Amino acid sequence: MARIHRYFLVLAIFFTFVLLVGLFFGWNDQVPSYLRDNHFSLGLSRPAPAAPPPPPRLPEVHPIEYLVSNARDSFSQVTARQSQTLEEAVHEYQRRYGISPPPNFDKWYEFAVSNNVRLIDEYDTINDLLLPMWAFSPFAIRQKVKKAFGGNDFVLQVSIREGNVAGYYNKGTNWRLKIIRNTIQIFAEWLPDMDMVFNMHDEPRVIIPHDDLARLVKRGREVRKTVGKDESSVSNVWSSPAKDLIQGFYNTSIIRPFNEYPHQFTWAISRSSCPPDSPARSLDLDGHPADDDTTPYIYPPLNFVQNHTLMTDICQMPSLENTYGFFNKPNAWSVSHDFLPIFSPSKISSFSDILYPAPWYLQEMVSIDDAKDLPWEEKADLLYWRGTTTSGFSEQGVWPRQNRQRFMTQAEKPGREHILKLDPDRELGWQLEETDRSTLQHLYNTHFTFIGQTSKEDHDAQKKFFDVRKDEDFQNVTLYKYLLDLDGNAFSGRFHAFLGSHGLAVKMALFREWHNEVIMPWVHYIPLNLYGSDHFEVMRYLTQESKGQELAAEIARESRAWAHNVLRQVDMQAYIFRLLLEYGRLSDDNRANLGFTLPSPDS
Residues of 435-465 as b/e, b for ≥16 C-beta within 10 angstroms? Predict the structure, then answer.
């Protein structure tokens, strides 16, 4: 009883402290920019106000149980607050972004509702990524589209003319182009005439220096505020097509907007959009790199992921320079330092590409045969992964610094790790304990099947170092409970399939994708930090503790149900539909007067 009283006393003191700090300093204004997401630090849109901080964890509650509980509470709040009518959706849009929705928003809403799209309001990513474009005039945006086609450097041209979608690629046909064109055609009748550029590389393409990006965001916010100020002139009708739109296939090599850096170290460029006061921009004046600032997103003692968005903000993690393949000789790296409206399937936090669902997902290039997928209870209690060394290009012995190789080294080689052990008296709770990796490596069935993207010397070294196995049928994932998803050159492409299976996705990833607002860590999958300090305890807890086993089964079940509701073709179509309505308004010469408004009660 005394211990319970102490707990509530601590709880009361905690909330009082948080309230006083919040009132005195303000909730957001005094937070250093490097403690926030890179885009949020530039003042972009935010979701609904956050809930109060969760109560302190009781000692006997494992950190994973605590994180799952908090994530479920947050997820319940998100699903409960969704708009139920067109009127509510319009008002919520205005609340979040300060302007009216784009023309034909009612057509998008009708499409979303008729296809049972679950999260009507969660599209902040679209508005955040498009905000810098408001700084440019519609004419300037169209010129930048043309510039992006210069040299046709692994980009696809997609054009809409009078509701018809055409696609062009300088090397003829392309499966990605066909999928993108067919997807847009579904709702093209509601879109204006416009031109778009889609990235064909795995890696993102647009990295803007922080000073330029900050100015674009500031100017973009100012311009966006002027939209629809004269309510009497607001129109829900697109303008006549601009005369400077591209005619047919735009094929020119006069301008080459992208700089090529394949097989080189790219950290210095990748961090250039980070705030100057961030750890990633440290000058290393004493000869040592700055420490990572993990405080905003890590939960002790084993650095469990508490905030996945902040975890993927490279501005807080200078250690990535030497631990992630994207910064250690990426296989392909073709980037622009000027803003170009490039649509890409994934990106690093510091990049300004516009995210859209990858053709890989739209075509279901990776799928699991539901008839072969074993029930959870019949699956092996193991973490499963098969793949190749596509973390980047390896030469001159750089491969130990690449992310896939670092994970496999832990899974296969001797070493010491920390796990958690519950104090028998429960007074001290879960305590760190050091153990040999060999006591837990039997839970891992994770192996390379091919050594690629490498020099001959590094190929031979990796072939000797790793336990390389024969390639297996992808459907073998149906035999295992825990399905590992790792970044490769960019996103892996397996995530949707894993989420929709009877297994449980365990994800270590830095790349951001379109679905980050609809799939929640600890509710639909298990997130891993990028250091490798947590996954041994994750596997131990989920497979050997009764509460962990219970949570794993629940998350796998809830993930499958949710994925079949929010990762369907129509969900991705709804995202692209809304994205292109926003993009269409941006490139319309009359955008200051464009917007969807609700009919007056008297009309």
Answer: eebeebbebbbbbbeebebbbeebbebbeeb
- What is the DSSP secondary structure assignment for residue 306, as one 8-state letter? S
Q: Where are the domains of the chain?
A: 376-567
- DSSP category for residue 599: P
Average pLDDT over residues 324-340: 93
Q: Looking at the DSSP assignment, which residues form a beta bridge with residue 386?
A: 447
Report pLDDT digits (tens) over 541-563. Answer: 999 999 999 999 999 999 999 99
pTM for the full model? 0.91
Say which range, 291-305, 379-393, 538-552, has the weakest mean pLDDT: 291-305
Q: In 27-169, where does DSSP find H-type helix?
A: 63-80, 86-97, 105-114, 124-130, 138-149
Whether 575 and 514 have beta carbons less than 8 Å apart is answered as yes
Respond yes or no on whether the N-terminal peptide bond of residue 275 is cis (omega within 30° of 0). Answer: no
Burial class (CB in 10 A: 0-12, 13-18, 19+), 553: middle
Q: Spell 46-73 as b/e; 16+ CB within 10 A means b.
A: eeeeeeeeeeebebeebbbbbbbebbbe
Cα 217 to Cα 224: distance, rounded to the nearest angstrom? 10
Alpha carbon 562 to chain centroid, angstroms: 18
Band (30; pLDDT cuts 50, 70, 90):
very low
CATH of domain 376-567: 3.40.50.2000
506, 483 in Cβ contact below 8 A?
yes
Measured CA to CA, the distance from residue 428 to residue 101 in angstroms comes to 53
Q: Report, as an integer, the average pLDDT of 169-180.
A: 86
State the Cα angle at 489 between 483 and 493, rounded to 5°.
40
Helices (H) and strands (E) in the chain, counts: 17, 16
